[in-house]
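INFO batch 0412 | record 1 of 1 | parsing
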Amino acid sequence: MKNFNIMLCFFIAQQLLAQGSVTAPTTTNNQPINAIPLGGNTFFNNFGARGIGLSVQGIQNWTDAAVIPTVYVRILKKGTYTLNLVAKAAQKSTLNVGMQSKNVKVEVNSTDWKKYPLGSFALEAGYLPIVLKGIFKTGAKFADIQAIEIQGDPANIKFVDASLTGSAQDSYYFGRRGPSVHLSYTLPAGKDIEWFYNEVTVPSGNDVIGSYFMVNGFAEGYCGIQVNSATERRILFSVWSPYTTDDPNSIPADQRVKLLGKGPGVNAQDFGGEGSGGQSYLVYNWKAGQTYKFLTRIRPNGDNTTTYTSYFFDPNTQAWRLIASFKRPKISTWYNSPHSFLENFDPERGAVTRKVKYNNQWVCDASGNWTEMTVARFTNDNTGRKKLRLDFQGGVENDQFFLRNCGFFTNFTNPDSVFKRNPGGKKPVINFAQLPK
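INFO prediction complete | emitting tokens
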């Protein structure tokens, strides 16, 4: 997770919302016209978009024909739908609007907002990409585009809209990031669980920038692998403070997470922005298609504090590496809520699908007894729960749990579905006494 940029994104989203809104929905022939706001539903082919503006007001300053905006809307029921483009241009320009292998040329010829009919289309259920291309312009830019209107029952048309939550933060920021998805593993009953072992594989081509493939989650934090940029990847381990705040500097001294130790090359510091606490990361060039092993220990210290320690098995050296060890105050607990999740933390890459596989989950209790975990419950965040986005999946594939999100694919998994994989029987062989301190 990129903790440092979330509050900034929240502020930007609030400012954009205050600037204006799209055309209000109306009705024609007793059929509602739904205005798809472009700010939360448009993505560009080149991510950076080279100067083009995108906000809740729509698309502005579109000057480059190489920039191709795509607007996504989900159709829940097959049927015929009528579409309009709401646009204006200082000087005449020609656009191409493409959907379902059909193309409509639009000449934008008004300096004021104007509706340009695109026609009626027989649309299948699922996500509909509406691709905009600049064909010809006589002025500096092709057009400003406020919205795409689609006529039909609002219950059958889903898109990112602030009115669904009443919050620009939820819809425009998290809606563009896409839904986060989770797997919660079922612990054996009646045992004090001290260790959680898990394996992760990111299939080739799914190591998308902005992805966090979280492997070993627990009630107070998480550990996993990230793609931070085109040149940097990390192994991240964080523990939240018991004090609720987004500002780590405001945490009282007696409620701060304390770093007890970290491995060679590991960076450690406080974090904030989505809760606060202690964070550590190792810059490590992990590779898609390769399986990695993680081990996390949680043990109460007997003084109302608990120690959290995470390890990563480095296939290059065939040895366990210490990521970090933290002491969290005001809690006495064993391992609770083992889980994994997949999220995208880059809003500009919310239209790119990514997938991850998790396998061979085991826990070890305080007496040294190992138990394989083969049952997991699939859940998602409010972006999916409130149907802002429906591109999320989870389940079992080739006897491995998997998660998939983003990219506007059509099939989705019902939240709270429970899945079971076949036991593999491959108990980890780990000498705890020889793990690095």
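INFO post-check: Residues 178-434 form one domain.
INFO record closed
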